[in-house]
Design brief:
This protein has 8 helices and no strands. It is mainly α. The protein has one domain. The longest helix has 32 residues.
């Protein structure tokens, strides 16, 4: 990895940690605008994985509440499958990847946090890894197009720290 590319990967990783910290701080200080995370009806068919531990703790509830807007639909599709017609708008790669990650690598967390919270963690990790990869490829593409590594670096920094980048990391 070339030194500027390694710097972009580090910068993108730091920006995701900063966004996560700011998101959690905002969750603690303010009431959420979108309350769709609290809507959690049971699956129409019985899920193949346990949905919640017997003692559902506040940590699991806080993690599950991080799935808002479209994240609610992605996590529901990962947990229950495609139950309703409107859920077909959310293509299966992300829900399938979330389910695979939560059933393999993060399976030991399911008895502690519950399946839904582990799905949300899996989705956040997948999206943040994809963001770091996108920042690296954005830098490489910018170098090819702009023919100036300094301008490509500045463009990548702006990509990592733009105000809308919170959406790149959320489920």
């Amino acid at each position: 990895m070339t030194p500027p590319l390694a710097a972009i990967v580090r910068l993108a990783t730091v920006s995701r940690a900063l966004i996560l910290a700011l998101s959690l701080l905002a969750r603690l200080l303010f009431r959420p605008y979108d309350t769709s995370a609290s809507l959690h009806p049971p699956c129409l068919s019985s899920p193949s994985f346990p949905s919640a531990p017997s003692s559902y703790n506040s940590t699991a509830a806080a993690i599950s509440s991080l799935a808002v807007w479209d994240g609610v639909h992605f996590s529901r599709s990962a947990e229950c499958g495609y139950e309703y017609e409107q859920s077909f708008a959310f293509l299966p790669l992300l829900p399938a990847s979330m389910a695979l990650l939560s059933r393999t690598l993060f399976a030991p967390l399911v008895p502690v946090l519950g399946y839904r919270a582990v799905l949300v963690i899996s989705g956040h990790i997948l999206n943040n890894v994809a963001f770091v990869a996108a920042a690296a490829y954005f830098y490489r593409l910018s170098v090819l197009i702009l023919k100036d590594s300094g301008a490509a670096y500045r463009a990548s920094v702006l990509f990592c720290f733009n105000p809308a980048s919170v959406f790149y990391s959320s489920l």
